[in-house]
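Sharing in case it's useful to others searching the archive later.

Someone asked me privately for the predicted structure of YicC-like family, N-terminal region, so I'm posting the question and my answer publicly. Question first, with the sequence:
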Amino acid sequence: MLLSMTGFGEARRQDEARTVVVEARSVNGRHLKLSTRVSDPFGALEPEIERLVRHRLKRGTVQLSLRVEALRRPEDYRLNLAALEGYRAQLLAFIGHAQEPPDFLSALLSLPGVVESTRATLDDPHAEWPAIEPIVVEALDQLQRSRQEEGRAMEQELRSLASEIAGHLERVAARVPNVVSSYRDRLADRVSALVQERGIAIEPEHLIREVAIFAERSDIAEEITRLRAHLQQFDAVVTSDDAPGRKLEFVVQEMGRETNTIGSKANDVEISRAVVEMKGALEKIRELIQNVE
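And my answer, the predicted structure tokens:
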């Protein structure tokens, strides 16, 4: 199954102590590149997060954010009465009267050191990893499902485009026998016209040799055979399970090379039109596989 390199996954969980939110998004990239944003003090968990990502993804630029917010409880805070009274006395002395102005207490509570947190600091973030890991896994699994869903749509489109190329190739193969005979007839007509106009005699063997040279130069049988083989390989790679994105790039490159050769060697209008259509389909394939893992 093809996997797109574009996707999004999210997971969140809340218990009596904390809220954990994990978001993972990915875009296309030639290699696997991970960028993380982790709230303090959980930055030490980044190696564990990278291990989980690399276990699931092989290519793409991945951005993962981990937010851990401890729930606030009344018992986690206390007033520093000494600081509060010190601020109050100094401010009243500064304004020069004992009457407190409106919102005086609110202003005091916002000053540094008045409200203190009694929540214990986390000494070892790794101790929290067993609770956080399942949430990261859930977000990555959702990201993977998103990539699979888009990959299925891409696979259908790639198969359709390959089928379109195969159809045009069969048109080319059916046209090949007529190319030499058409050239021979056109050459004979030109020679006849030349003989009538100028009375120049042309030996039949010269005409035969010219046609033979053209047939050799315009022979595209090998290119047709190789392009058919590349189309079969393309179909096999699309259905493989081992991150086929790079393999598809190589196969499509070879398909393009054979198509260009067919277009340059076959001196025929119908074949040229078919080659133009094949090149258009190949360009669409190139754009799609840029996003295949």
